[in-house]
Each structure stands twice: as structure tokens, then as C-alpha cells.
Specification:
By secondary structure, the protein is an alpha/beta fold. The protein has helices spanning 14-44, 84-94, 113-119, 134-150, 172-183, 196-200, 230-244, 271-288, 304-311, 338-362, 369-396, 399-426, 433-437, 447-472, 481-497, 507-527, 532-550, 561-574, and strands spanning 5-7, 10-12, 63-65, 100-102, 123-128, 155-162, 190-195, 212-215, 250-255, 292-294. It has 2 domains: 18-39 and 336-572, no CATH class; 63-311, Glycosidases (TIM Barrel, Alpha-Beta Barrel), CATH 3.20.20. The longest helix has 31 residues, at 14-44.
Amino acid sequence: MHVARVENGVRVSPGRMKRVTSHHMPLTLLLVSLVTIAIAWWWLGLPVDLPRAPIDPNNKLQCISYAPFRNHQTSLSPATQVSREQIAEDLALLAGVSNCVRTYATDLGLDQIPELAAKQGLKVIQGIFLDKDQQKNAMQIATAVRLAKQYPETIIALVVGNETLLRKDITASDLAAKIRSVKAQVAVPVTYADVWEFWLSNAELYDAVDFVTVHILPYWENVPIRAEAAAAHVGAIRRRIASAFPGKEILIGEIGWPSAGRMRESALPSPVNQARVVSEILDLAQRENFRVNLFEAFDESWKREIEGTVGGSWGLFDAAQRRLKYPPGIAISNFPMWKLQMGSGIGLAILIFGAAWLSLRRNFGKAGLVAWFAVAILATASGILLGVAAQKMIDESYGAGGWLLWGSLLLAAGASPLFGAAAIMSGRSSPTFLDLLGPGLYRTGSMLAILHGAVWIATVVIGTATALGLVFDPRFIDFPYAALTMAAAPFAAVMLVNPVNGGIRPMAESIYAGLFLFAAIYIGFNEGPANWQSLWTCAVYLLLAATLWRVRVRQQRAPSNEHRRDQLRVESAFELPDRQLQYDR
């Protein structure tokens, strides 16, 4: 016998108390989820105060590397010709933050830079690009010599070759001969530029150059250096080079940090880390009184085609708008749009809870605590990761193929928790490949299940593509940790909450499970334990492997005679063995 309770003078029946409690639980979890998302995004968006502004018009840079290529312009195409107007526009911007620009070649319209730089009061360290093409090398040298004579007040040095020894385009003895030949024709100092290891291994260049131009890029070191230690590393390497080449001035010809892209061990590209490295290097140069040329002025989009996101993200100005990334007086944050990202995440979390509630009502069921907790975890994680995944898609997409790949993954990431929440509440298990791609007898007739299955297939296929890329060509491949987590976690949650007991493990899912397992192990060891982006991505690959391994196709009762005839026709057409299997959704 049920006894009604009295609350505030009102009799409350046991049934009503149960309904009130069942409504309170999801509402409480929703509130906790939204608060967690807000706190997480507030923390992610916190600005960082640096002791010195990376760019200060009142304290101009000594020099900065400049290449004028925009949009689809590339130094790899002989057809590229940069206009005077384009160069003049760039140099007017750079004159506000730097006293000098360093160039790398004299062709493709770059021979116009000294004349236009002179009009802006900029000095030029003129580059001469050398490779295996001797005829082209001769033209590069002749043009640079002419410019040095024509603009003696503007060109303050010539750089004969840039990382030519690193690329193995020329021998050290031939390079030394070219340097001496150029020195004999000009009145300005002449040098060569390469990474610091190649200076130490080619000491015969000591007598050929007037000063040593060394590249120190902590991100690209064989043992990558984290941003917090980059300045100390540069200082140590500079002192080592100075000891190896006594009496020669040491110019740090390239030093910088990427603002976006994949981690290399503990070296993390980000806006805050780029600003930190630049700020600390400039402070070190001022304290220890050495010259430094920052790499580089503008992001170069064309480099992303060959070097990935990292290659196009070294600039202090963005590529498209030519806007300064770190305007003086404005706080620096890795997520400057964090309020918008937080709002989008909160909206997605509400939709996920809404999808769960609607599915529960539609199926006239009741959800237990485990189901609602699973929905809450999905909503919270998705609400936090949505903004990260969207920002990564914008930063890392290049070309139609890149936008299609990362856009599809983001779409799957946004849809997966919605379908997952609905499946959890309706008692459905995760879809299988057979739901969409199997013979007619196995295919589901539910549009909801078809869409859910399409998201699952997209997640597995795109996840496979990224895993293979990180195994076979990892140097420039970005880690899709945020979007892939959003896409994969809901399927694992559905598999845990609504498991399929018994049945047959499909062959396709087993193969993919093995592939993800192998990829996770290999990538984890290859990237090292300091790379949290890699470890996170490998964890998602393991989650996908476990989910795929647990997929089962249920063995059902024998089909009706009509269905059996249809099955036999299908098996005859595909030459499949007779079986008594049916996958029912």
C-alpha cells in the first residue's frame, strides 16, 4: 500500500514524487554540464601577460624575414610575378614595426624590394638563392650584385645561399668560392645562412664570410625545445657558435615559432607560445647585445601545401588580411573568440539533452541514472571540444580537399553526440556497417539509424585516413584530437550502455579495429610521451578500436518464407553462403 506524503500542506502521491524526481535529475545534470562548459572556456580564454610586447612600434625590430607571396602565389612557380603595389603595401606595414627586412631571392619580382624599401626608410639584407641550377644561380648573383651597387644606402649585407648545405644542393668548397666571388664585386658585408649544426660541420666557411648568419629554430630541432625554454636554448647555441668562430659577429638569421599546427614532442605551436618566444628572444638580444632577424613577417599560405599547417603559421602578420597578430596593448589568448565558442558549446549541450529527452518520450521509456550520466558526459565533453574543433578546422584546412576532410569530420563530430544521446535513451545499440552497406536483408529501414550509421562510417573512414597519415607521413600531419573525440566517444558510450550480447563479430569492423590498435601503438612510440596531442589522439584511436571490436550482428530467428526467398536471391547474386542471420534494428 502506497501512502501519500504531505508537502507544504499539499498531498503528493508516490507517482507524482517519482515524476518530479525523474525530471530533477536530468535538469540538475544539464545545469552542471553548462556550468562546467562555461568554466572550461573561461579558463581556455584567459589572456597571458608577457613582460615585453612581441611587437612594439616604439621599439622597432632590428630585422624581419619578408616574402611577399599571397594567396596562391608561390616561390616554387616560375610564373609567379609579384607586383610593385603588393610589395609596397607590405613594406608600408613592416616599416611601422621594423627597421629592416631580410629577403631570400632576386627573381619573381623580389628585385623590386630594395627600391621600394628605400622609400619606406627600411634597410635590406639581400638574399641570393642558390640550388643545383647553375644558370639560375648565376642570374641570382648578378642581380644581387647590381642591386647592391644601385642601392648602397639600403642594402646592408648580401646572403649568398640559404640552407644550401642543408639541402645538399652544393658542396662547401663551391659555396665558399661563390661567396668570395661575390665579395670581390661589392662593398657590403657578405655572409651565408644555415642552421647551426651545418656551421659547426663546415668550419671552412669561416674565412669566406664577413659574419656568420645562423638559423636557430627550437621547434624544428632534432630534439624539439618547448616554448618556455626556447630563449635559453637560443642563447646557449649562439654562445657555442661564437666560440667556434672567434672574431666573427654572429647574426641570428632566423628565429621564430609557429602560431598553429601539430606538436613535436613538447614543442606546441600556439599564439601565446609564438608571442612568448618572440618576446623573450628580443629581450635576450637586448640584454646580451646581439643582432637578431625574426622569422617571419607574414604567414605564407603556399607553404601549407608542402609543410602543413605549421609551415604557413610563422608570421607575425596573418596571410589573408595582413593584420598584426599581436597588436600592442591587447592581451594575448589562444582562444580570443572564447565567448562565442563557449556559447556554441552550451547550445550543443542543450541540444544533446533535448535529443535524449525527446527520444525518451517518443519511446515511452524511462532512463536510469547511468543513461543520464552518459548523456551528461557526452554533452559536457562536446560543449567544451566543439569550439576547439571548429578553430582547428579553420586553422588547419587548406585547399578544397582539406576543407572537405576537416569539414566532414567536424560535421560528424557535431552530429554524433546527438544521435548517441538518442540511441542511449531509446535502448538502441551502435550501428554497424551492414546497416548501410550490407545486403538488403541486413539493412535498416529506420531513417534515424541510417543517419546514425552514416556518421559512424564517416568517423571510421576519416579516422583511418588520419591514422595512416600519422603512421606513414607524420611530419606535417595535424592531430585531430578534438573533433575525433566528439565523433568517437558517443559510439563507445552507446556500446557500453546498450551492449549487444552474443551474435557474430563482423569482419570489416575487426579489420578496422586492428588497424586503429596498430596505429595507436606506433604513433604513441614514434611521437614520444611529451606530445599530449599525440597521446590524446592515440587514446581516441584505441577507443575506436575497442568500440569496433565489440560490435556484434545479432543472430535472430529464421526469417519468414518471403524474407527467406529474398535472402536466397541476395546470396545467389553475391555468391554468399547459406546462413540463418538477420540483423534487426
